Automatic annotation (TrEMBL):
It holds the Pfam family Fib_succ_major. Residues 169-317 form the Fibrobacter succinogenes major paralogous domain. It comes from the Bacteria. This is Fibrobacter succinogenes major paralogous domain-containing protein.
Length: 318
């Protein structure tokens, strides 16, 4: 009996050593650097591993038009067309500048166009002023109508920015300044727009190369919509066992989740990342290839997602 126990202990020690040897064997050379994004001066820690240089932080670049650009902070409301209103004072200043240039010559009944516009600017929003003028006098005064449209269109981008900033400030005031820790969440198209010069959204093959560098087997690396590997996910997470890639559980804006009362889920539980690779499903539906990490899972999910969902972004250097 004593001899059997000794043999079993020997086997356990041998297996443990083999496991340790495996972990030591797959550890590649790793180095760290920094990158500063000239667009907003955010500085990112970067990690070079297996010949690839990745950002070791989630992208934090805010696309100017917010949700209209496919960029979200956690719990940020979508911007609707009816939410965008041109500033009344800016509109009045533009119209009066047009009056000074002589762009509104003519009369309507007892009023000149100038008098009419002055009255309407006091009573109507810019949107109503433009739509009413076009409806009632567009045919009679096409040049004046064109001038009003041009002025409105010139002011419209600033109106979008104002709403986007309001939406961001409102969400950040209640989500604990999410973007400072987790970065922003991007739709697939938003992610492609947000990447800084000299970097790109990683392909599915880029993710596979990283996973293979950490020891994921060839037999598992191509599996789709399944948890793959052994402990590679744990190596990429933030924490004492990680290599410095520092995945954080940012959650995401999940496609189809709104039917359950909201779109944002799994903060502090899951991390979701885009790749630039997508596949065409039946009925010509495009799905993006993603990576998913879970708080209680050491492996990595290679998944698929509707392109309108919003996930975190890790950039890879060109």
């Amino acid at each position: 009996m004593k001899k059997i126990i000794i043999i079993l202990l020997g086997v356990i020690v041998y297996c443990a050593c083999q496991d340790d040897d495996k972990r030591d064997w797959i550890q590649p050379e790793i180095s760290f650097s920094n990158f500063q994004d000239a667009r907003d001066m955010n500085t990112y820690k970067c990690i070079t591993i297996g010949g690839q240089t990745w950002m070791a932080e989630n992208l934090k670049y805010r696309l100017p038009q917010g949700t209209l650009d496919g960029c979200y902070t956690y719990e940020e409301e979508n911007i609707r067309s009816q939410d965008i209103r041109v500033n009344s004072q800016s509109w009045a200043d533009s119209v009066r500048a047009g009056i000074d240039r002589g762009e509104f010559e003519g009369s309507v009944g007892f009023f000149t166009l100038v008098q009419l516009l002055e009255m309407w600017m006091e009573s109507y929003t810019p949107e109503d002023c433009l739509s009413n003028f076009e409806a009632y006098y567009g045919t009679s005064f096409p040049e004046a109508t064109a001038s009003l449209k041009r002025m409105y269109n010139n002011l419209y981008p600033a109106a979008i920015l104002e709403v986007a900033n309001q939406r961001l400030a409102k969400a950040e005031s209640t989500n604990g300044q999410y973007s400072k820790k987790f970065g922003f969440l991007y739709t697939y198209e938003g992610a492609l727009k947000a990447v800084p010069e000299g970097w790109r959204l990683p392909t599915d093959d880029d993710w596979k190369k990283l996973e293979a560098t950490l020891g994921m087997s060839v037999s598992q690396i191509g599996m789709l919509d399944e948890w793959r590997g052994n402990y590679e996910g744990n190596l990429l997470k933030v924490g004492k066992d990680g290599i410095g890639f520092d995945v954080v559980y940012a959650g995401g804006r999940l496609y189809g989740a709104s039917m359950y009362g909201g779109s944002f889920y799994n903060r502090d539980v899951n991390a979701y990342f885009w790749s630039s690779t997508h596949k065409v499903e039946r009925d010509t539906v495009d799905l993006g290839i993603t990576r998913v990490f879970f708080l209680k899972e050491d492996r990595i999910m290679r998944g698929t997602s509707d392109l309108t969902a919003a996930y975190s972004v890790r950039c890879i250097k060109e």
